[in-house]
Amino acid sequence: FAFSWAGLAALYSQTPAPRVGCRVDQTQISTGGSTRFVIFADQLPPLTAFTLTLRYDQNAVQFQDQDQEKEGINLTPGDVFPATSISQNLVDPVVGQIQIAVSQPISSSITGNFDELATGSISGVSQTVVPFHFTETILYDHNALLMDKSTYGIEECFVEIGNSGSPTPAPPATHYLSDR
Prior knowledge:
Layout: H1 5-13, E1 19-24, E2 28-29, E3 34-42, E4 47-55, E5 61-64, E6 76-77, E7 86-92, E8 97-103, E9 115-124, E10 128-141, E11 153-155, E12 157-161
Parallel strand pairs: 1-11, 2-12
Antiparallel strand pairs: 1-3, 3-9, 4-8, 4-10, 5-9, 6-9, 7-8, 10-12
């Protein structure tokens, strides 16, 4: 069995790079429609802490509160960290910002295969394409050392709201914050 360089390059290109990101279950929803929103980690080593901040157009998307007993609008924590380790979990509908932070003394139960860090539900308010941009990513590895941002990618996401008839835009490319 012989490998060619082109075959090895194609095989390597299908291997996902370590990354954090967001996804929506449906990239197109109607005004008033809703879809699931996920913040994830993929192909990362176990983490002891993270802080993630995302921005979005608060005039076009609304997040539904996932925990009525807590003040403000909150996401549902994933099962990677115990709920008691969450130090910040807030969706600010005034400025269009999501902030989630976790810290704990031991490493997480990250499997390295699309681990959900937090989930929520969004609904469309006005007809437009809404990107979700990471403005801050701070990750600490299993030794509680700050991970170099050049060692993992950021995968942003979007949702198209309304029945504009326009084609679905291509998903934003995965990029490294060190490239910015």
